[in-house]
UniProtKB/TrEMBL annotation:
<feature type="binding site">
    <location>
        <position position="320"/>
    </location>
    <ligand>
        <name>DNA</name>
    </ligand>
</feature>
<feature type="binding site">
    <location>
        <position position="301"/>
    </location>
    <ligand>
        <name>DNA</name>
    </ligand>
</feature>
<feature type="binding site">
    <location>
        <position position="75"/>
    </location>
    <ligand>
        <name>ATP</name>
    </ligand>
</feature>
<dbReference type="Pfam" id="PF17864">
    <property type="entry name" value="AAA_lid_4"/>
</dbReference>
<keyword id="KW-0227">DNA damage</keyword>
<dbReference type="InterPro" id="IPR008823">
    <property type="entry name" value="RuvB_wg_C"/>
</dbReference>
<feature type="binding site">
    <location>
        <position position="76"/>
    </location>
    <ligand>
        <name>ATP</name>
    </ligand>
</feature>
<keyword id="KW-0347">Helicase</keyword>
<feature type="region of interest" description="Small ATPAse domain (RuvB-S)">
    <location>
        <begin position="192"/>
        <end position="262"/>
    </location>
</feature>
<feature type="binding site">
    <location>
        <position position="191"/>
    </location>
    <ligand>
        <name>ATP</name>
    </ligand>
</feature>
<dbReference type="InterPro" id="IPR036390">
    <property type="entry name" value="WH_DNA-bd_sf"/>
</dbReference>
<dbReference type="InterPro" id="IPR027417">
    <property type="entry name" value="P-loop_NTPase"/>
</dbReference>
<dbReference type="GO" id="GO:0016787">
    <property type="term" value="F:hydrolase activity"/>
</dbReference>
<dbReference type="Pfam" id="PF05496">
    <property type="entry name" value="RuvB_N"/>
</dbReference>
<dbReference type="InterPro" id="IPR004605">
    <property type="entry name" value="DNA_helicase_Holl-junc_RuvB"/>
</dbReference>
<dbReference type="InterPro" id="IPR041445">
    <property type="entry name" value="AAA_lid_4"/>
</dbReference>
<feature type="binding site">
    <location>
        <position position="181"/>
    </location>
    <ligand>
        <name>ATP</name>
    </ligand>
</feature>
Length: 354
């Protein structure tokens, strides 16, 4: 497996959606092995089930599959399930690991018939490799260029039929010719709390952790719609339950543990709350410019914009407007603060129609 990309420093948070190599090794034990075990994503599961069943009935190779969605929602897991359901081996690589077309040619030419090639972060592949992939996907053929300059020749190389599973967090960044070569695209959504609760209970079972329904619900509610985060929080809660209590995870124990790790009821961590707190207390809820907000919390502009804000926006706690960042009424409520009363100019509504 090649997941060579370092996780950015700022992403090494308990609530980070990305994982480093070490965590991926721990995660391997928790991966569902077939579609039946895979929690949630009903639509994608049903559609994929049809694609795979039909391919099996025809005795052929499944169409190429594109999975799009945020990190930690189960794209790698689904690719392994696709291989398992097709009874095929799987090869795993990622866009950034394929710098040259030659790297891709080497991988493609060593595939066996029906093999699944999982290409994570497919949007980060180099241009020449991408162009080679077009032909490989469509015609199961690549042209290997031998030599340089005017004497260079293209030697056609036949490939066995294979299934490409591409994963991307940014489907919009894929060039249309690449997108169009996938027979099926699955859009992965964030998970509902009840689904995450099932993920937590399943993982607890596998890790031999005793947990009650409320304990699982408490962890699920703080997991930002993401199974990877749910599993990570479960591991930290397990430590707490073992060291500070009798090992059993109840709602109270889960809440105490996650309070220690500063992950609040909605899954906000220290950084998220610092941004909201500054926006509300220092700037009256905004609008305030990103740079000013970043200085106020002692972080880089990029950290606030790329690490904290996406989740705050998704949660409906912060809005990005042309005039700057503004807090929503939900943000005031979440931090238990009361918004200042601002008289609206005659005939004009306030920002939130208040
Ligand atoms: N639907 C699910 N049911 C149960 N566990 C899940 C589900 N989806 C993901 N997980 C668990 O969450 C963890 C992360 O999943 P996975 O590595 O597949 O995510 P990903 O979308 O590929 O992430 P990335 O984009 O960072 O590669 C794994 O331990 C996996 O077992």
């Amino acid at each position: 497996m090649t997941w060579d990309d370092p996780v950015p420093e700022t992403d090494q948070r308990l609530v980070a959606a990305a994982a480093d190599g070490e965590e991926r090794a721990v995660e391997a034990a928790l991966r569902p092995k077939d579609l039946g075990e895979f929690v949630g994503q009903e639509r994608v599961r049903e559609q994929l089930d049809l694609v795979l069943k039909a391919a099996r009935q025809r005795g052929g190779t499944a169409d190429h599959v594109l999975l799009s969605g945020a990190p930690g929602l189960g794209k790698t897991t689904l690719s392994m399930i696709i291989a398992a359901e097709m009874g095929a081996p799987i090869r795993i690589t990622s866009g950034p690991a394929i710098q040259h077309a030659g790297d891709l040619a080497a991988i493609l030419s060593s595939l066996t018939e029906g093999e699944v090639l999982f290409l994570d972060e497919i949007h980060r592949m180099s241009r020449p490799a991408e162009e080679m992939l077009y032909m490989a996907m469509e015609d199961f053929r690549v042209d290997v260029i031998v030599g340089k300059g005017p004497g260079a020749t293209a030697i056609p190389l036949e490939l066995p039929p294979f299934t490409l599973v591409g994963a991307t967090t940014r489907a919009g960044l894929l060039p249309p010719p690449l997108r169009d070569r996938f027979g099926f695209t699955g859009h992965m959504e964030f998970y509902a709390p009840a689904e995450l609760e099932r993920v937590v209970r399943r993982s607890a079972d596998l890790l031999d952790v005793v947990i009650d329904t409320d304990g699982a619900a408490e962890i699920a509610g703080r997991s930002r719609g993401t199974p990877r985060i749910a599993n990570r929080l479960l591991r930290r809660v397990r430590d707490y339950a073992q060291v500070k209590a009798d090992g059993v995870v109840t709602r109270e124990i889960a809440a105490q543990a996650l309070d220690v790790y500063e992950v609040d009821l909605r899954g906000l961590d220290r950084l998220d709350r610092a941004v909201l707190d500054a926006l509300l207390r220092l700037f009256g809820g905004g609008p305030v410019g990103l740079s000013t907000l970043a200085v106020a919390v002692g972080e880089e502009r990029e950290t606030v914009e790329e690490v904290a804000e996406p989740f705050l926006v998704r949660e409906g706690l912060l809005a990005r407007t042309p005039r700057g960042r503004i807090a929503t009424p939900a943000a005031w409520a979440h931090l238990g603060l009361v918004p200042p009363q601002q008289p609206n100019p005659p005939g004009q509504q306030g920002l939130f129609g208040q």
